[in-house]
Amino acid sequence: SQFSKELEQQGIRQVVSRPKHPQTLGKIERFGGTLWRECLQRAVFLDLEDARRRIGWFIDHYNFQRPQQGCEGFTPADRFFRA
User: Fold this and answer.
1) Are 58 and 35 in contact (CB under 8 A)?
2) Residue 39: closest CA among 19, 23, 54
3) Higher-confidence residue: 38 or 71?
4) Which tens digit of pLDDT belongs to each residue from 27-61?
5) Is 38 left (phi over 0), alpha (psi -120 to 50) or beta?
6) What's the pLDDT at 22?
7) What pTM did the predictor assign?
8) Pick from 12, 23, 29, 80: most CB atoms within 10 A?
9) Which residues of 29-41 are buried (b: 16+ CB within 10 A; e: fewer)?
10) Of 18, 19, 14, 20, nearest in space to 1 by CA
């Protein structure tokens, strides 16, 4: 498909997987639940820009500042960049 060709040109490997399949989707499903519980569930945003900004702050904190048990006490960014 045109989509597959575009991904290939961009150097992106498409992975197709089943829902609730922990080997492929578990990490992002877990993140979605954490985002909901810790950021969105009780939030009241002033407008779309406020929502984008605050969700961005949460994602930055989650990836660069918050140690994770699944990363052996490192942050996801530490593991990704092999710090």
Assistant:
1) yes
2) 54
3) 38
4) 788 889 999 999 999 999 999 999 999 999 999 99
5) alpha
6) 65
7) 0.65
8) 29
9) eeeeeeeeeebee
10) 14
